[in-house]
Amino acid sequence: MSPRRTLVAPGYQLLIIVDKPSAYAERYDFIGAINGSQAIACMTLTSADRKSRNIEGVRKEIVNEWIVKTLAPAINRLGINNIYLICDKSQSHNKVNMMQAFKAGQCKSVIDICYMSAASAKYISPLDNPKWHGFKEVIWEVNIQ
Length: 145
Prior knowledge:
Layout: E1 29-35, E2 38-45, H1 47-52, H2 60-78, E3 83-88, H3 95-104, E4 110-116, H4 130-144
Parallel strand pairs: 3-4
Antiparallel strand pairs: 1-2
Helix pairs in contact: 2-3
């Protein structure tokens, strides 16, 4: 059965049918931010992008550059205060560096960065997972006090 939804880089086919899968599959790195059901900002790195920028994948420098150039301006346009950024606990998500990147991008709306377990973002659906409820409760408690 074919997938019903997929992410595809611009210029690539939506579905590729293969008789025998190869040992190597082209990798895409994705960074994204959502606010409820609305996409705020995203970035996709293809193999060609990584090669042209001479990088192996998403490292903290790439995350921080994306925050300064893309995410901080997008959050500023929303005009929302007291934002919590929730991300997985990968080595590229350094809280101090990310908060400095928001300051460099002149974004004062992000007040804290919370972490999920490493690599958990790819398995969580915000609609039906109790982890999101737990995050919401913690954030409500912090804002009420």
